[in-house]
């Protein structure tokens, strides 16, 4: 009898030991399928990462090992929340959810018991803490707080990663451990985000996107269909809010995200990840086909909104340092590739040199080889804005690759962009060889740097960065477009008049805005000239026509990066500090110089040096033209504004004016070898005239005269005739470049 009891006891101990072993633990109340990973990384993906020797998979797993080794060296730290963004507790909780996610992946790949113990302990620590937490003591301005963080957005991001970690780990937890985590952490967080924060959960906004993704994925893991349905179709389950409504309303017909590329990059992760989870758990939704495959368009459009260095164009509120080498884009390209089998995404994935720890990442890695191109093609294109594609857009004029670089012009005539939008209709920014030449200011914010107003948007974001004068566009009477009223601007859109972007010889776009100012029309045409008969190319012709109903002050502003080399006009420097204006951003601009065209000239040449190349802005002038060189920094007591200089061309007391400008890259400066080449511009003899319904810009290059002619109506059927130097020229409209013998 004693022997029998001893045997039973030993069997029981062995059974307990096996149950604690992370390789074989299963929930006795759940099927194996219920406990297996069900979100982005499933058993098939895990097996692919374990068995494949693909270079990108090895790079990813080796980097993960290094990260996990660093994590395991530190004791678990779950502090009481008290700091705003960038503060100690804020950053520690961000570090914790990232660590949980990395540890959970590592454990599935290595079955290391130390890693599992760390995961269990951290999940238990948060489950012990979360029910006791009040709202965060430092709520963010205009945004409801979370409990762990100063804003609910961070709470949603935290749950987004925690639920993935739990999905990968719960198979190796006891029923009691699961119950504690689910009842005290996962469900309370999901309820806080979807019930207590009802308005944010049902808001069509990136905060809402993160909330529905986190709550929906939690519902899938917990087998809570009600939670999943709320996430997909909104709290009322009528699809007027929720994930589907966000897909409907936040992306244009071409996949342009309403708030701009910076927020597009941030929001694409919950969009694409939740879509993958829906496909995995509810394939009947056919989510990747939804709205004519809008998620494929969203990913591809996001990638196109980058310069040659992969930096996102800083349209609207944007931090300029963000590039496509980011976790969000890594997930997006991998999942989109797997969902759509789109080979155009492979060069970006190959460039990144790693993949996401998802089934899609393993699939992408398996299809990349030595023959996969690494150069991503960025052609000229127009990206439409608006749900139906009829509310303006973004035009990208890009030269063919000359040598190692590409000239890029970004023409913004899109909608406002909600609360993160800027008042910059018909604005221009220019990039060359991956460098900013005529920049967009972006945002006045030092993200998560506590010393700068807690990492919040700074007051100067409202008083300067979003205003028209901070951009390269026309400003009337020193007042921003739409009087800087978001609601007014949201109701109107610029109109695309014409776009021709397929030719390598020249590409052009024209848009008009008749609502930025009451009774005034703004019309801008841009053309990029790549004509092979011109030695030094490409360059940009900028034609900006302004018509007002009464005499008006008109400012055309060109922010620029670099050192001033040659002004090409007479100027004086104020002896005392002088501020350009009193409101709408003008109060932040110090006047560095005041000038006027030289006698006997009808245009100015302004040359500056940026990143080893010379750039000249040649612009037509008349006797009324006033010139200002300005710089940010006035009325900026906390030094919040980045240094930015501008060339401003002003016309006063006019009801109509045509600003005609050529922006020309030329030459080089090599500081290492101390050599300089072609510091003088090629373009000379700039002039403009109108003949009937045709605008004619003439200029000299390589000793020859060229005419750029543009018909005011989009008429491609008729022959057009113009007279120049007593000769008649005929061409098929609406635009053409003519070389005069």
User: What would the principal axes of the Cα set say about the shape?
Assistant: elongated
Radius of gyration, rounded? 29 Å
Q: Which blocks of ≥5 consecutive residues have pLDDT under 50?
A: 1-32
What fraction strand? 15-25%
Question: Would you report the number of β strands?
Answer: 25
Q: What's the rounded overall pLDDT mean?
A: 91
Class from secondary-structure proportions: alpha+beta
Largest sheet: 12 strands, antiparallel
Q: Tell me roughly what share of residues is in helical segments.
A: 25-40%
Question: Overview of this structure, please?
Answer:
- It contains 19 helices and 25 strands.
- The chain is an alpha+beta fold and 741 residues long.
- A hairpin with an 8-residue loop joins β1 and β2.
- α5 runs parallel beside α7, α8 packs antiparallel against α10 and α14 packs across α15.
- The longest helix has 23 residues.
- It is elongated.
- The N terminus is likely disordered.
Summarize the structure.
33% of the residues lie in helices and 25% in strands.
Topology, pairings included?
Elements: H1 2-20, H2 32-35, H3 43-51, H4 55-73, H5 88-110, H6 113-129, H7 152-169, H8 175-196, H9 198-201, H10 206-221, H11 225-233, H12 243-250, H13 261-281, H14 290-304, H15 327-340, H16 346-352, H17 359-366, E1 381-384, E2 393-398, E3 407-412, E4 427-432, E5 435-438, H18 459-465, E6 474-476, H19 486-490, E7 495-500, E8 506-513, E9 521-529, E10 539-560, E11 563-566, E12 570-572, E13 589-596, E14 603-610, E15 613-620, E16 626-632, E17 645-666, E18 668-670, E19 675-677, E20 684-691, E21 694-701, E22 704-711, E23 719-724, E24 727-732, E25 735-740
């Amino acid at each position: 009898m004693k022997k029998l009891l001893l045997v039973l006891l030993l069997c029981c101990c062995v059974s307990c030991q096996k149950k604690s072993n992370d390789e074989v633990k299963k929930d006795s109340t759940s099927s194996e399928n219920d406990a297996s990973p069900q979100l982005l990384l499933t058993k098939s993906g895990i097996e692919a990462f374990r068995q494949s020797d693909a270079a990108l998979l090895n790079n990813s797993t080796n980097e993960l090992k290094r990260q996990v080794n660093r994590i395991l060296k530190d004791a678990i730290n779950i502090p009481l929340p008290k700091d705003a963004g960038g503060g100690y507790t804020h950053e520690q909780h961000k570090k914790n959810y990232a660590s949980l996610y990395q540890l959970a992946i590592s454990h599935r790949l290595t079955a290391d018991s130390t890693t599992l113990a760390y995961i269990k302990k951290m999940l238990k620590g948060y489950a012990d803490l979360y029910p006791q937490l009040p709202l965060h003591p430092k709520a963010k301005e205009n945004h409801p707080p979370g409990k762990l963080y100063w804003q609910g957005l961070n709470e949603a991001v935290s749950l987004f990663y925690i639920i993935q970690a739990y999905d990968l780990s719960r198979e190796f937890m006891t029923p009691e451990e699961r119950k504690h985590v689910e009842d005290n952490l996962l469900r309370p967080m999901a309820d806080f985000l979807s019930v207590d924060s009802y308005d944010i959960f049902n808001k069509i906004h990136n905060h809402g996107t993160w909330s529905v993704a986190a709550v929906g994925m939690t519902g899938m893991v917990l087998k809570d269909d009600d939670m999943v349905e709320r996430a997909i179709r909104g709290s009322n389950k009528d699809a007027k809010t929720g994930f589907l409504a966000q897909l409907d309303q936040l992306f244009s017909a071409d996949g342009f995200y309403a708030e701009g590329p910076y927020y597009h990059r941030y929001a694409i992760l919950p969009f694409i990840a939740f879509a993958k989870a829906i496909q995995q758990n509810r394939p009947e939704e056919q989510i990747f086909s939804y709205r004519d495959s809008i998620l494929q368009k969203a990913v591809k459009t996001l990638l196109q909104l980058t310069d040659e260095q992969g930096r996102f164009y800083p349209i609207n509120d944007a931090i300029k340092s963000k590039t496509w080498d980011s976790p969000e884009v890594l997930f997006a390209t991998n999942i989109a590739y797997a969902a759509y089998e789109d080979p155009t995404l492979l060069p970006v994935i190959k460039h990144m040199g790693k993949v996401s720890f998802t089934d899609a990442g393993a699939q992408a890695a398996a299809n990349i080889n030595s023959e996969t191109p690494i150069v991503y093609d960025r052609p000229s294109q127009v990206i439409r804005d608006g749900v139906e594609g009829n509310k303006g857009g973004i035009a990208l004029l890009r030269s063919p690759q000359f040598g190692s670089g590409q000239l890029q012009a970004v023409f913004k005539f899109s909608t406002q962009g909600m609360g993160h939008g800027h008042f910059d209709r018909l604005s221009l920014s220019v990039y060359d060889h991956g460098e900013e030449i005529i920049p967009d200011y972006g945002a006045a914010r030092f993200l998560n740097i506590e010393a700068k107003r807690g990492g919040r948007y700074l007051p100067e974001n409202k008083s300067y960065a979003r205003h028209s004068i901070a951009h390269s566009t026309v400003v009337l009477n020193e007042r921003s477009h739409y009087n800087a009223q978001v609601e007014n601007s949201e109701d109107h859109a610029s109109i695309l008049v014409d776009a021709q972007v397929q030719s390598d010889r020249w590409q052009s776009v024209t848009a008009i805005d008749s609502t930025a100012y009451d009774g005034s029309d703004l019309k801008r045409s841009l053309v990029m000239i790549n004509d092979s008969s011109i030695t030094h190319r490409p360059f940009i012709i900028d034609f900006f026509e302004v018509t007002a109903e009464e005499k008006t002050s008109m400012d055309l502003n060109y922010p620029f990066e670099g050192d001033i080399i040659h002004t090409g006009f007479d100027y004086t420097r104020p002896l005392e500090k002088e501020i350009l204006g009193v409101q709408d951003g003008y109060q932040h601009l110090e006047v560095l110089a005041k000038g006027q065209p030289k006698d006997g000239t009808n245009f100015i040449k302004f040359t500056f040096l940026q990143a080893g190349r010379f750039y000249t802005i040649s612009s037509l002038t008349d006797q009324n033209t006033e010139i200002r060189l300005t710089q940010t920094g006035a009325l900026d007591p906390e030094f919040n504004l980045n240094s930015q200089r501008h060339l401003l061309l002003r016309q006063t007391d006019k009801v109509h004016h045509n600003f005609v400008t050529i922006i020309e890259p030329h030459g080089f400066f090599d500081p290492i070898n101390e050599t300089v080449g072609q510091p003088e511009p090629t373009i000379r003899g700039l002039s403009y005239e109108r003949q009937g319904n045709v605008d004619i810009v003439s200029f000299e290059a390589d000793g020859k005269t060229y005419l750029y002619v543009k018909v005011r109506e989009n008429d491609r059927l008729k022959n057009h005739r113009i007279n120049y130097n007593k000769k008649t020229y005929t061409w098929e409209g609406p635009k053409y470049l003519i070389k005069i013998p």
